[in-house]
Amino acid sequence: MLKRRYSKQKLEAGTDEAGRGALAGPVVAAAVILPTRLRASEWKILNDSKQLDEKLRYRLREVITREALAWRVAFVSREIIDKINILNASILAMHRALKYLPVRPEFIIVDGNRFKPYENIPHETVVRGDEKYLSIAAASVLAKTFRDDFMKKIHRYFPHYRWEKNKGYGTAEHKSAIRQYGICRYHRLSFHPHIEQLKLPFN
């Protein structure tokens, strides 16, 4: 089982994002404050969302949203990503999730090694924190599943990109579809690894 706390503060929020490396779609972040007592047995298997299969992620989302003391999810659009860059957009998404929490955190732990101070609340970045702390792992699951839901929804309007499968990431299939059909309004114009998106037609 992952660790419950980094600090000695009761209202410690863990935060993480999903979608940072995708070619399309928003970046999504979540913030989670856990209670002192965890009731469900599923907390024992909570881990970084990337290490869980889809069915288990959604099962854990039900537990997290039911038992967390507080949780929120925030989206930052493709337009803002292109305007301020993905690192700043990821931090903005985490700040928004923290802002939307119904209670003010006393301490914040962040997955990764980059963050900007939020409202003078003490914080600590933790490399691979989603594999070490329950609240960050919980945030990773919420961010991942809510973003996946969004990508599945917009897949219905742009089925040729197969976002229900690749969630906007740069798979061979997704890149092939971009070459064939060009990009759409959900593609990040500032992201063109191996594909010069800015030179492609915009649908």
Number of separate strands: 5
Query: Could you say which overall geometry the principal axes of the C-alpha atoms support?
Result: globular
The helix content, as a percent range, equals: 25-40%
The major beta sheet can be summarized as: 5 strands, mixed
3D architecture notes:
- There is one protein chain.
- The chain is an alpha/beta fold and 203 residues long.
- It has two domains: 12-151, 2-Layer Sandwich (Nucleotidyltransferase, domain 5), CATH 3.30.420.10; 159-199, no CATH class.
- Helix content is 35%, strand content 15%.
- It contains six helices and five strands; from the N terminus they run ββαβααββααα.
- The chain has a five-stranded mixed β-sheet with strand order 3-2-1-4-5, sandwiched between helices.
- The longest helix is centred in the C-terminal third of the chain and has 22 residues, at 134-155.
- It is globular and about 55 Å long.
- It starts with 11 loop residues before the first strand and ends in a 22-residue tail after the last helix.
Can you summarize this structure?
The protein is an alpha/beta fold. The protein has six helices and five strands, in the order E-E-H-E-H-H-E-E-H-H-H.
Task: Supply the key terms.
203 residues; alpha/beta; Nucleotidyltransferase, domain 5; five-stranded mixed sheet; 6 helices; 35% helix; globular; disordered C terminus
Indicate the topology.
Blueprint: E1 12-18, E2 27-33, H1 54-67, E3 70-76, H2 78-84, H3 86-100, E4 107-111, E5 123-126, H4 134-155, H5 163-166, H6 172-181
Parallel strand pairs: 1-4, 4-5
Antiparallel strand pairs: 1-2, 2-3
